[in-house]
Design goal:
globular, alpha/beta, six-stranded mixed β-sheet, Rossmann fold, 10 strands, ATP-binding, 241 residues, AAA+_ATPase, four-stranded antiparallel β-sheet, ATP binding, binds adenosine-5'-triphosphate, 37% helix
Amino acid sequence: MTVAASGPLLETEGLTRRFGGLTAVDHVDFQLFPGEIRALIGPNGAGKTTFVGLLSGRIPPSEGRVRFGGEDVTRLPAHARMARGMAYTFQITSVFANLSLFDNVALAVQRRLARGEGLEAETMAALDRVGLAGRARQTAGDLSYGHQRLLEIAMGLAQRPRLLILDEPTQGLSDGEIEGFKALVRDVAAEATVLLIEHNMDVVMSLATRITVLDMGARLAEGDPAAIHADAAVQRAYLGG
Ligand SMILES: Nc1ncnc2c1ncn2[C@@H]1O[C@H](COP(=O)(O)OP(=O)(O)OP(=O)(O)O)[C@@H](O)[C@H]1O
């Protein structure tokens, strides 16, 4: 077995991002192993979205390193990290509002397929997984916010990623849709590692195999859901206990 296969899928060392005088992400050491569903939680402004931006290559770091699949990707742009198997959805939707759901997902499938073969089947399969196949011909901009988040996940899945990063995916979903989302993530975890930024603690506690807590840009705690729930520092900083 190679080091890359047995070690972490994703690793950061001293990862830091400053915005002027503010340190949004402060020397974070982080390891994510293949097959995990990892939740990243923390109060508003803790640095979660910035951290994920550093992982994906959307935001350059001030200091520190990112390794993906055993390779140092710190200097690689976002598209090169995507080509290596990282997919992500953002809080700010990346959906093309004027295109149909089908065309949005087909664009993501096309990035992976050298020739167009199988495009329609793969596109419909990705939409089906998030429960939107019946709306394939609708215009994406007409969807509710929550359904646009699901469409983004379909676009991520269409890339057949090794790592799927989801930033607040359940925002705007109904209780019933959240149940469907949980089933989807468990299903995805059989083939991809999942990193989930999530404020809904019910979703976090029922899905995550491991939880990392960020507070003021630094890693406050890490452990399984039971350990995090019982952690006094986490209670003070986040759970309001
Ligand atoms: N482009 C930027 N310029 C200046 N400050 C920024 C920038 N992006 C983020 N920040 C600041 O960095 C800190 C961390 O923000 P970030 O959005 O990463 O937190 P978060 O944990 O994702 O918060 P939330 O849960 O509210 O989404 C905040 O104080 C924020 O105001």
